[in-house]
Amino acid sequence: MRHPLAKWRVPLALGIGLLYGLLTRLSWGYEPLQGIFGTPVSMSYLFLTPFVLGALVALVGMLVAPTRNVSFWGVAMPILAIIIGTVAALISHLEALFCLIVAFPILMTMAILGGVITSLLMRQMRPSSLKFYSSSLLFLPYLVAPIEQMLDLPPEEITMHDSILVQAPAEVIWDQIASVPEIQQDEIRNSWIYQLGFPRPRAATLDHHGVGGKRIATFEREVSFFEVIDTWNPPQSLSFSIEADPAFIPANAFDEHIIVGGRFYDVLDGKYEIEALDPHQCRLHLTSRHRLGSHFNRYAEWWSRVIMKEIQTTILEVVAQRAEAASSHAEGNR
């Protein structure tokens, strides 16, 4: 006998799966519960919630209208559910665009995995086993989250390095890195990270030359990083420790999950090195050290390197353009 809800199986399956995803997101985002479940930046939420969502979509759809079509209920429908959920989270401002882009590969993979496993199990599962499986699914993230919270994983430090060839003497380049006058909009290339809302670098001021000098690097939307000079060796190297105090970073400057100086990410120090290749050509190096504090640092590291490469390349390009212009101007006045 045909199930009375058979004709509604697609919206019903999607609705139940998406409702579960929304309730779980609200649970992990509710601050009083974060001591138990953690935040959305956790394995239990980011990996297990889409797994259960995909499994529920397949489970409901195949219960209402029994079928052996794994490709539809195990793959296509979980994909559709994740796409709808992602768009809804963006439109409702539940999540920022960049966070959704970072999370999307994980969400999609885990939802498909949950859908496929459930579809295959339902082909041979007895009704009693099915009830136990579906009940276990619903509570899986909630049961794993407190265990994950007890794991005291140490933060990891990573180093990122970029360089650029500059057609200018070392002394001219040094003048452009010690302090950086205000950067104009047309000096910065239109990188994809700025299209996604990352603040562009604006300037760097220095109160005095030498070790102990205080440097303030400013970015768009009133973002400031406070730096203290550790190495002052003109015209060869300049290094500085960085303090990124979340109290001095506006709430709308970054997504809440990637606040610099917060629990999951921080930038620790930076270093410029000028490698003279000949009297009129140098290679400028920029190295920075970062702290990652998530439970999936390998994945977070990949994204950190992609983003920081764009930011460091932007800074190096501005310095190179200015140094080359200053060098050309000096040559022309001789």
CATH-assigned fold name of the largest domain: Alpha-D-Glucose-1,6-Bisphosphate, Chain A, domain 4
Estimate the helix proportion, in percent: 40-55%
Domain tally: 2
- Give the tally of β-strands: 7
User: What would you call the shape?
Assistant: elongated
CATH architecture of the largest domain: 2-Layer Sandwich
Q: Count the helices. How many?
A: 9
Binned strand content: 15-25%
CATH superfamily of the largest domain: START domain
The overall pLDDT average reads 88
Structural class: alpha+beta
What are the secondary-structure elements, in order, as H or E?
Answer: HHHHHHEHHEEEEEEH
Transmembrane segments: 45-65, 72-91, 97-122
Keywords: Membrane, Transmembrane, Transmembrane helix
Protein name: Polyketide cyclase / dehydrase and lipid transport
